[in-house]
Amino acid sequence: MRFSKLFIPTTKDAPKDALLPSHIFLIRGGFISQTGSGLYNFLPLGKIVLDKIRNVVKEEMDRAGAQEISMGVVNPSELWRQSGRYDVYGKELLRFKDRKDNEFVLGPTHEEVVTDIVRNRINSYKQLPLHLYQINTKFRDEARPRFGLLRGREFVMKDGYSFHASVEDLKREFDLMEKTYTTIFTRLGLEFRAVAADSGAIGGSGSKEFMVLAKNGEDDILICDKCQYAANIEAAKRAKKTTENEPPKADFAKFHTPNITSIEQLGEFFKVDTFYTIKAVIKKAIYKDRSEIVVFFVRGCDTLQEIKAKNAAKALELIDASNEDIKEAKITAGFCGPVGLEDIKFFIDNELREEKNLICGANEENYHYVGVSMFNFKDERYADLITANEGDLCPCCSGKLSLAKGIEVGHIFQLGQKYSSAMNASFLDQNGKSQPFFMGCYGIGVSRLVAVMIEANHDEKGCIWNKQCAPYVLDIIISNVKNEAQTEFAVKLYDELRAKQKEVILDDRNERFGFKMNDFELIGFPYALIVGRELDEGKVELVSRATNEKEFVHINELHERLKEVFA
Ligand code: ATP
Ligand code: MG
What is the domain-level CATH number for residue 122? Predict the structure, then answer.
């Protein structure tokens, strides 16, 4: 393509709300434009990059045996009612009505639609497994759309859904998808980790996220320094915490602790490590049609992980309990403990199971219990509730966990029968028995990846694309278009390379050389070939955007050298 013809509206300034390099440079480089909050258009260069990423995803999904389809963006609410998600999905789900008052949603994800497609069309185990995927527009009315393509409201996702006759076969596909995603992100040249994840609103069990390590990432992940363990902080586990400090040995007793309402005060009052104290975190759990106070007990030195707590309480959401809520539930704030706590839903962290010599609130103003042993609570009370931290020990080996920032680019789930049973989608198994399908679902943030490529690779001047994703690999810059020899040489080279289907762009604009170099650096083509004054000596200059290395190449050796550039 000729630069002079291509619509590449580069600008000097970035929008005020653009904080991250990917957002700033994609707008300034003329890749995308914004029409509203979280709403973006892909301009020619952006569309080329998007399609390149899309092709890598498609090639690998096809290779893995999945079949591409295209589902509607507008979905009848009825399907969402059948799955039970209509009322629980939250405000991200945009709901609206047509002229006949029929209710619709804009698809934020397509489990319902795909289940409806397969139901009554696949009837026997003999037709399984089946994996259908699409690369299509999604809409989520995100609470805080930001960072450009990283968190849009309308975005492009690859979403695949697989159907199986058994859990074993679902697991096989899940492993295959883990491998496929690994190939995709490796081909895109990204540094990433597959991490254990929370399953979120989609539900089901067994889920992994693919995180690109990037300092501007929104997700916190813990990574073991010895083994392969890595997990989103929302789901991260750790080896049970221990302490070398002496426990406060005492027989079980009620102790007067006037005005000691915080864990720090309690630790000081008894001169003990807060490891031996129990902290109560009081929350209000929101359910579909009611709310309830729930108390979570963790060690004084730990913090509650809200996502784990929400899952334990099977709540849609947890919010802070107000003083009135706490009073109404007859909880003695500051002195709440699990021993003798009646008529209140509560959960205890797994690490407190069968522990002794603890101190906790006595559920009475100004009193704590000492010498508490955790033997008398039912199994259902226990759950993993704590936030694992940097420095904690790995749950798999003796390594140390360290914190890193990541951007989620993919997520794979074993859904099981959650949607198929809710939506009556079943098949006849080998024994002629009807069973709901076993399902898996697999997402990749295709438009988010456009931005991720830049978060992973840029400098202060602009984007740095790798060859795999670059809109064009080589930018031939005519230093001075009024110089006939330069123009003639450049155009001839450009035509030759185009004939060989090389990804090349010719900057033939009647602009100053410096201006064209700035655009090269801002847009970030992997290489520039400058056809300038040195052409008189039979030389042109090759510049690498990533390393900024410049070398003069004799025109007799140019074709040989360019083979490497396009390799
Ligand atoms: P996040 O935690 O970032 O909100 P999610 O877990 O809700 O994402 P999934 O439902 O797992 O997202 O969707 C699959 C993929 O789609 C994600 O891994 C992510 O790459 C991409 N994605 C999700 N939400 C957005 C968004 N608002 N804008 C761009 N891409 C998104
Ligand atoms: Mg996710």
Answer: 3.30.930.10
